[in-house]
UniProtKB/TrEMBL annotation:
Stated name of the protein: DNA-directed RNA polymerase
Polar residues bias locations: 163-180
Family statement: Belongs to the phage and mitochondrial RNA polymerase family.
Catalytic activity as recorded in UniProt: RNA(n) + a ribonucleoside 5'-triphosphate = RNA(n+1) + diphosphate
GO MF term list: DNA-directed RNA polymerase activity; mitochondrial promoter sequence-specific DNA binding
Lineage, highest ranks first: Eukaryota, Metazoa, Chordata, Craniata, Vertebrata
Biased composition (Basic and acidic residues): 196-209
Start-end of each PPR repeat: 286-320
First-tier enzyme category under EC: transferase
Organism: Xiphophorus maculatus
Amino acid sequence: MLVFENWNLCQTNEPDCVCLFFFPETPVCLQRRNISSVILKSEDAKKRVHEQSQLLDVLKARIQQLQSDVVLDVQHAKVQFLKSPSFGGGVSSGRTVKGSSKDKSDIPKSGQVVTKGASKSQPSRWMKKLSEENINKLKKQQILQQKVQRNAKEKLPGKSKASKSSLMPTGTTHKTMSSSAKKRRGGTKLDSQSKVSDKDATKKTKDGDLTEIEELEKRLDEQVQQRIHLSTTESFQESSTGSSCGDIQLSIRSYLEACVFIGDIERSQNFLVSQHRVMSRRKHLTTDVYNIMMRVWAKKGTLNQIGRIFILMEEAGLKPNVGSYSAALECMGRNPNSPPKVISRCLNQMKKDGLCVDDLFRECVFQQDERDMLLKAVQTVKPDYEPSLTLNASQCSSPLVQDFYTNREHHIYPKLDFTQEELQRCFQCQLSVEQACTITIDSVEAMKPVTENMVKMRELLAEQRAQWQKVLLQALRENKMILTKTNTRDYKLNLYPYLCLLEDKEYVDIMIQSVSNLPPSGESLKILAHDLGNRIYTKYCVRQKHQNGIVEKLRSIYDAYTELLAKDTKVYNVLPREQWCKLEMEQSSGPTLQGAETSWPYVLMLELGTFIVDIMVKNLKINSDILNPAYDRKCIPILYHMYTFRSTRQVGFIKPHPILTQMQQEAMETTLTFDSSVMPMLCPPVPWTSEKFGAYLLTPAKLMRTTHGATQHEELLEKCPNLHPVFDSLNQLSNCAWMINKPILDIIISIFNDRGSDKLDIPPPLSEAPKIPHFNPQDPAYTASEKAHMKREVINAKKKCSEMHSLRMDALYKLSIAHHMRDKLFWFPHNMDFRGRTYPCPPYFNHLGSDVTRATLMFAEGKPLGPKGLDWLKIHLVNLTGLKKRSSLQGRLEYADSIMEDILDSADNPLNGKKWWMEADEPWQALACCMEIANAVRSPDPTKFVSHFPVHQDGSCNGLQHYAALGRDVIGATSVNLMPCEVPQDVYSGVAQQVEELRTRDAAKGLKIAQVLEGFISRKVVKQTVMTVVYGVTRYGGRLQIEKRLKEIDEFPKEHVWDASHYLVRLVFSGLKEMFTGTREIQDWLTESARLISKCGHTVEWVTPLGLPIIQPYHRTRNLVLKSTMQHINLQISHDTKERPDTVKQKNAFPPNFIHSLDSTHMMLTSLHCYSAGLTFVSVHDCFWTHALTVDTMNKICREQFVALHSQPILQGLSNFLLLKYCDFDLQRVKESTYFFS
């Protein structure tokens, strides 16, 4: 027994026992040492369910028998098995307990019995039977009560006398059943928890002939309700959050934390206890779940409650962890009268469990003053104790970076071009944005001249939104009231706490914002619901951090952290991650910054979002004559819940009414509201120091992007001993400051607000969209073929309008964000996908975007061009045009000098001059480069011209470069520029030339399709297939790519497209196999390894050369049905680790994913070494950016790190890892085998 067994838990007047649950057969107050005896075992639970089922049949039969004895017309009320609007009964899957929410049964209800023709003066045979049975029931009740009293006296010696009522636990009932029914059922016992009270059991009314029918009906109805609750709860426990134990545990933790956050301690305590008492639910409870309630009682200083939770944990077979002991000691620290002996016992017990005091301070996540109270308790018995905290100085095991971390004498870590005071002001601005969770910015469409109609529509919308806010506020409060009344079961998860996390007005604001952002074609209910749930979660996390006191500590640490980055402070020889960890250790008092929030399950976000959408659909209305007074006035919904088909699946979506769409389009509103997380940051991001902490100040962010609900990646990262190189690379990318290229932005906005330009990739407004034709399908004037043609035109026009709206809104968001940032400096926090490829967190506006977005971005820090910078600008410009790809660098430079007149004209007159820049492959970046070159050549000294312009260096088919290096293919390596050459090699042209040679040979042999293809094989035809074959494209996919290219050639005979694509894809694969002899062998080995691994029931895992663990999350798809009041949402779960791996996906994805992990490793190595050399460096996967001044240095580092990477035994290391991971046979065991040779 734990140390609490000897603690004085009776400091208050409470008895030294825990009166939690009772056996129905022995309803007595149990001592705390016997708590486990009252918990229902799984077999008992099964038996009880079986008995309830039998009881239902018995009661039905009894009613039928009684009714058959006389002429009675009993009207049964239909009881519908409704799905509860709670989180608890909303989901089912293929393995869920049977029973649908749509099932209906005719269940009789008490008080609905009507008697016809029965005379009071003529008692019938069944009335005598009833009276006899009533007498027998009274006798049995007396015997039962006497037996209970005897049991109580035997089991509680020395206890004070208790009344009969006190001996009967709440909710237990007397067993009452007619003798005839017992005989028919072989003496089946009734469930001891039937809800018939003593008063109901003994009551004799004047209408005694109806008493038993009413009583039996009432009991039948109550048993049905119990079975309904049981089935919904079991359904939830088995599958509501993905039928995985981890998801259910996450749901329980989320629910308890939400209850605690809103201050509903009674609800949280009752929920935990009710989960604990039933074995089928108790198995989902972990020590951390019990710790949640321990922390609550610790803050209240209630030590006896903590002791009881320790006892519950012991009954559940769980060991206390550091969080458990921390809560207990914290509670003692808050209580000034805590005896030192009790604290010492706790510390001794902790030591027996293999834990030391330092473990508490190292591993626990503290809130508010918990750490201080813990330290106070420890120092009560150890006055000289101070926590021994050390930085995690373990070096990365990868030999690639050992020298980087150990030899730092020549490292020159760059500073930001800001003073410390400026950075601190930047932090305050960003903190304000994240605290608000949303930000409203000016739309670039606001620059358009305002018309009278626009003013009118804006006023109408403002008026309607004010009205909608009132309606939604009232509807939300009404729904919350309903939830409080309809969900009374302690063990059921309920949406109510999640609807109390924020102020009611905040929920309404989220709803109004989602209506404004809804596209005219509508949005999938699943996507919309998850978006709403995620917004609520984000706001909740921010409020949690406020409540836990994190904001003030974050401000203190960040202010000190800016000393590392600012230009007016001393130079440090440490990395941002190392400095942040050092500052956290120095300021260890108070709350912990890392790991404070619990992620919500995907299904919870969906159900919460669906609940919100349902409120919106039911309550948001508008007058039908608001735009046209000629129409009849009636209130119509502004949102419609509809269905459409996506492929073969029916999908529910929410569509706005055309009136609302028209008002929004004509209003061209001047502002846009975004979540704060979609905006670039106004201060340097918080460095990644663990897999749970980094990037934004308050907004939750994930280190690794994963599919919703997938947890295997996070589990792998937590087990990984050292991810420092990965963290440091992400921090380096995130620390690059950016600014807006204002001249380019202004030109783009002017074209955007005019009519757009397809040629320049600026989408036109919807006024340019094709008009949707209207026709009456019932009109006999149209023939069947004409109707079909008209329908196709309507579908195509609607599709085109939808695409145009999506592109237009995407451009509007990007340009509006850029315009909002035009006078600011900003940063992009980074994270990565499961293969290690890095991405900026803000989704709309970033340097991974289109040509338009990239052209508007420049480095905030400028550097002089130096002796070769201007040449690199010119070469970069030629690269952007797509011309001279086969020319040497000198040839491109000479070409740039030859067109200098066009370059300067483009810079001076971009829209009215020769417009040379518009013919480039990347026109907007080319124009920006023209302007930079013009400014440089016109400066007094171009070598001293300060340039902010990023210059790109792109890999030559980077995937094939890695394959060629792995396979040491000389021919392949030469074709992708791994070997020195006079001019750049073009692998696409090389493959096209090889395919042409094979075609010529076949044509000479008389092959017809080879003869047809004469003159049509070009670089463009084969490029996409060559580029994607390294990423696992199949022959089928390659054929489709080539077919598309051939259809684009007007002169090619369309009747031969099918045969030609089949023929060419075979030649392309053959050509690549000859050029890259090792590539295909490596691909085949990777594919076959993945096939064998997945066939054995395992998912493919590996570790990158930098130590990043990777797992492929492809499993067989499992359907999960989320039941809501709106519709059943079918979720296809493909990441459930309990399902077998998807062999096809595992084997096809392994080669490309492995190569992606290598190119991300190369990028990270280049990033780290560029940082140590003082360079500004960012990447777009295999395209590296830096200042013109430092291109040569970056190129040198890039090449050195590629060589260093491929000098490692990568394939041998992978082979060893796979053997160790997936092969059970250990060769060393042969040495211990007696009978190996005998």
